[in-house]
């Protein structure tokens, strides 16, 4: 789930669950093959991971593992398909009828696995329930612009907004916007042990901390029709077990938990395929603008002028992540390389000019934690210190703290500059920029900018996609000039599949979880 820094063999159960999606087990079937005909074996994809889902209910708080289950069991009104950065219909076709009215027309004949019809009443119930529960860390806050959902008929749901919100189509693609069966879900509490959705799969077995069994939902009507009969997701304890399962052929797909060394070795094997795509996760260094040092624009801009991202990435991560030149990564609407445009190449003379009138070397306290941002965090801050110290313009002091103490130190303003990581909650450029603006966001850095605030409000209310991308680009330019945050790198999503597994690249969602319906052998 999102960082707490304000945010990260066919089993018997699987076969038994699959019966419900085809025909009642043991009942006669008029379409059964004649004697002598062969019946194709069930294709159940075996997935292993080191992450166990913590929540099945999409109205609750969820991590990446939970989103993988939710994203395959539930259906949303809209979705984002591989290679398409904008939302497309899933359960419905939606459009703005006015700046504050968003109408979704449901497909006909939608059903839940229990046979209940999916209607606009379920859509309204799902949103009212999610907002009403207000689960800490849950999705309710994302939909603050929605005042109500009206249902003029069984196939129409209308979202009424208090103000124009161009983010809404993107918000409706998230697992938090999943549609649940109002006859199966309690209104005032989370459903912890089961899940009833209309997505590509139905949940047939769940052993918390151990396994999740999914069976193809034959009545699914949407954009992700399954090409397999089911999925068995098993949680293993560590990277060693993860590697063993995939290399021994006991699993078809493995993800989340490999070490860099394991991945490098797996890339040389002809028994598996290692597939990567750009990840939505980013890491950066944020300035604490309550600090007298960090408040000086010249100091922030000089650091931006000095940092050598490719060298840092190579030193700390052996180039397993990608240098990032804006808070918004490539692939998201409106993304630019604003910091590259503003500062070109690392340049000591240019940095010195920005520090005119400032006593040198500038003392700078940099905070980091060894227990939140991965095994490369120490090498990353050491390389940042080396680069800044080598310029002769800065004298860097590193201060490390374990995660709980680190959070407290950040809130207390103990650092001039501190390490941060971020995974957006919805697939839109807005969620890379807004968290750093003002005082109400998840990053308490004290960044107040009239220009940034104005552009943020303009892009949120702009319904013309081209114009909105332009506004997002201008907002990134403001960030590059004012440097409240220094983007450093973008992560990569990596999965390892068996050599005979098809469509592996199609499972990767930019937000880190997996859509499993495209997989087949």
Quick summary of this structure?
About 30% of the residues lie in helices and about 20% in strands.
Note down, in words, how this protein is organized.
- Keywords: Signal, Transport.
- There is one protein chain.
- This protein has 15 helices and 17 strands.
- The protein has 2 domains: 44-247, D-Maltodextrin-Binding Protein, domain 2 (3-Layer(aba) Sandwich), CATH 3.40.190.10; 279-491, Dipeptide-binding Protein, domain 3, CATH 3.10.105.
- The strands form 3 sheets. Strands 1, 8, 9, 10, 11, 12, 13, 14, 15, 16 and 17 form an 11-stranded mixed beta sheet that branches. A 4-stranded antiparallel beta sheet has the order 4-5-7-6, with helices on one face.
- The protein is α+β, with helices and mostly antiparallel strands and 521 residues long.
- Helix 8 packs antiparallel against helix 11 and helix 14 (450-461) packs antiparallel against helix 15.
The CATH architecture of the largest domain is Roll
Structural class: alpha+beta
Number of strands: 17
CATH class of the largest domain: Alpha Beta
The rough form would be described as globular
Subcellular location: Cell envelope
Pfam family, one: SBP_bac_5
Family: Belongs to the bacterial solute-binding protein 5 family.
GO cellular component, one term: ATP-binding cassette (ABC) transporter complex
Brief descriptors of the model:
alpha+beta, Dipeptide-binding Protein, domain 3, 4-stranded antiparallel β-sheet
Topology:
Elements: H1 12-22, E1 44-49, H2 64-73, E2 78-79, E3 88-89, E4 92-98, E5 101-106, H3 120-133, E6 146-153, E7 156-161, H4 168-171, E8 201-207, E9 211-216, E10 230-235, H5 239-247, E11 253-255, H6 260-266, E12 272-287, H7 297-306, H8 309-317, E13 322-323, H9 338-343, H10 348-354, E14 362-368, H11 377-390, E15 394-400, H12 403-412, E16 417-422, H13 430-433, H14 450-461, H15 465-482, E17 485-498
Parallel strand pairs: 1-10, 1-11, 14-15, 14-16
Antiparallel strand pairs: 2-3, 4-5, 5-7, 6-7, 8-9, 9-10, 11-17, 12-16, 12-17, 13-17
Helix pairs in contact: 7-10, 8-11, 14-15
